[in-house]
Amino acid sequence: MPLERGAPKRGFLGCRSILQFSYHYDGMQRLFSTFPNGWPGFGLLLLRLGVGIALISFGISGFFAASGEPVAVARDSIEALGAIFLIVGLWTPVAGALIALDELWIALSLYSSPPDGHWTHVFLAVLTAGVAMLGPGAWSIDARLFGRKRFDMADGSRGRKPSH
């Protein structure tokens, strides 16, 4: 059975080993292939702002409504602090996943808001999970820290040694 060029060899029973799999798929790929700019990047910024403002609002109102229970304080602080991370676009996949789990926890909690409020928290969980999967966009701290860099070679040297 001929192998495709660049495809890893198959091991026992035609299965790929973990090393071959990670080598074939370049192992340390980024979570996001791009940080979109333009209209898609602006759309992600609007999504982050809308979800973040709603989460901060729910978190602050939860602080004032809470009876001082440690669970409620932790839940509301995760909501508010995670929203700040989403708004600025810092550690977006981690913050989005953590907030999505927190919102589902709030929605399924017995001490949650009235029955109509459960769907709001489910909706926020879905939106934050979507932001975690799509990425922060070009207008974020993640894009500045982890985005692809562009190197311009103005002198045209292209790998030649400099002349003395």
Number of helices: 6
First-to-last CA distance: 55 Å
Low-pLDDT residue spans: 17-29
What are the secondary-structure elements, in order, as H or E?
HHHHHH
| Count of distinct strands | 0
Mean pLDDT comes to 77
Beta-strand content: under 5%
Strand pairing plus helix content: what structural class? mainly alpha
Specify Rg, calculated over alpha carbons: 22 Å
Largest sheet: none
Helix content: 55-70%
Concise structural overview:
The chain contains six helices and no strands. With 164 residues, the chain is an all-alpha fold. The chain has a domain at 44-146.
Which helices and strands appear, and what pairs or packs with what?
Blueprint: H1 18-24, H2 38-65, H3 70-88, H4 92-108, H5 118-134, H6 141-146
Helix pairs in contact: 2-3, 2-5, 3-4, 4-5
Can you walk through the features of this model?
This protein has 164 residues and is mostly helical. It contains six helices and no strands. The protein is elongated.
Summary keywords:
single chain; mainly alpha
